[in-house]
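Hey,
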Amino acid sequence: MSIVKNDEIIKTIEDWKRLAPPKSEKQWVDGRSAKETARAWLQGGVDTLPDDIDTLPDDIDILLSGHRDFGPVIRWTAEPEAKLRFDRFRGEPRNSDLAVHAEDSYGKFLIAVEAKADEPFAEKVSDALSNALERYATNTASKGIVRIQQLARALFTERESGQSALKDLRYQLLTASAGALCEAERHGYTRSLLLIQEFVTDKTLNRKHDRNSKDLARFLARLSNGEYSSLTSGEIVGPMRVPGTPLVSASVDFYVGKLTRNIRAD
């Protein structure tokens, strides 16, 4: 196995910070998602990755083994702050906190990690669209509106009674899903897993964790056309097939999982 960024192997917390830092130095603190993600993937929370470790972190391995479509991982590599482009428009691609390329007895697959302490899944789609309209007003070359239209077409079918309107979903969940699907397709994989890796710490609030759980449930219900309406820690749901066009082939099986690490001092 290896965790690599810019062709350099990451073995320590300091390696991770140097090679794949968060956008702001203020985000690299104990109890927040950037640093805790590094700890979680540097095996058991230690600060240095031993040379002889070649397995996934135990909780990731257990999570995968709980779903019939995944087997014991034979080999894997990972890249922090991986750019997963899902359209052909100019601008900053979708950033995944960690992109893991793994292989089991069924073949190769992708794990796109979206790490959260208690930060929201960005703004709602309605706000993202409003911001895109404002940009278009001063720059008609802006593709923000078209990007949202393409995401809507690629991921969702007609709204069923009782399901959330697209405007009420969290935009980051749309881009994270599209990025995970497109990256899997680029590599010829037939499975793609979006993993929400949540950290409960002394710096997080339960009400914000609850908000994120509800936002994730609303998104899942709409994405799966009502087949899945909740997701608990240690669970993977799927496979799901999205319309795909115009962003991705519908031949990629899509899964969403959640894993919570509670490191809050009692």
